[in-house]
Amino acid sequence: MTYVVSLDAVSKVYGRGQGAVAALREVSAGFTQGSFTAVMGPSGSGKSTLLHCAAGLDTPTSGSVRLGGTELAGMNETRLTELRRRRVGFVFQAFNLVSSLTVAENITLPLRLAGAGVDRAWLEEIVKRVGLAGRTGHRPAQLSGGQQQRVAIARALVTRPEVVFGDEPTGALDTMTARDVLTLLREVVSGMGQTVVMVTHDPVAASYADTVLFLADGRIVDEMTDPTSDKVAERMTRLGAWN
Ligand SMILES: Nc1ncnc2c1ncn2[C@@H]1O[C@H](COP(=O)(O)OP(=O)(O)OP(=O)(O)O)[C@@H](O)[C@H]1O
């Protein structure tokens, strides 16, 4: 199986000695092209650490992370930054848009940071796909929360990354708007073949994914395919997530 992103026995320990915290314990996982994976687990189970290690935002204490054919271990920060700019897209809970830039400028920012030109046809295509046609001259403050997250999704797609990572991408949205954004993420996977890995606390959000990975105490303890929100909620309850 060829994976777009793979983790092999990844461990992450924060701190040293008595205060050391094992956030990940020999986690292995692989994400195939065009798959949508949700990562769930109780608070402190290691979800963000997993995402950050997979995205090259954090360095594992041991183990291997591969993005495409590239091994991340041993890369210096300059190369990691370049790799993240070109090959990884991010969508965060707080949309992290630049308020002084227009929608179009926000979307194309990763290209300018990478010193790459803008492919106008591709820009038009993603603007249309995320439903922002006619809004490209607006500033973030003139948009609703859902529209701002659509800008962030377009920005994540603009470099044609191998994978898009979402850290609670619907965490700041109301229920209806969150559904729209999840439907868009689902389309990005099913319609464009994009690979998406998303951390979420919400069983409904997880139900939009193909697969849910459940973390507990730094380990993957279960995997669910074709999830429903009820099945995910039940699994989370058994993990003691909402006690
Ligand atoms: N920079 C850090 N320094 C020290 N400990 C950390 C650091 N980041 C995370 N941890 C610890 O590692 C463990 C896993 O944290 P992580 O943020 O990955 O969990 P999470 O599942 O994303 O939690 P949440 O759902 O609350 O966001 C926790 O015990 C946390 O306190």
From TrEMBL:
Keywords: ATP-binding, Nucleotide-binding, Transport. InterPro entries: AAA+_ATPase, ABC_transporter-like_ATP-bd, ABC_transporter-like_CS, ABC_transpr_LolD-like, MacB-like_ATP-bd, P-loop_NTPase. It comes from the Bacteria. One of its GO terms (cellular component) is membrane protein complex. SMART domains: AAA. One of its GO terms (molecular function) is ATP hydrolysis activity. Residues 5-242 form the ABC transporter domain. This is ABC transporter.
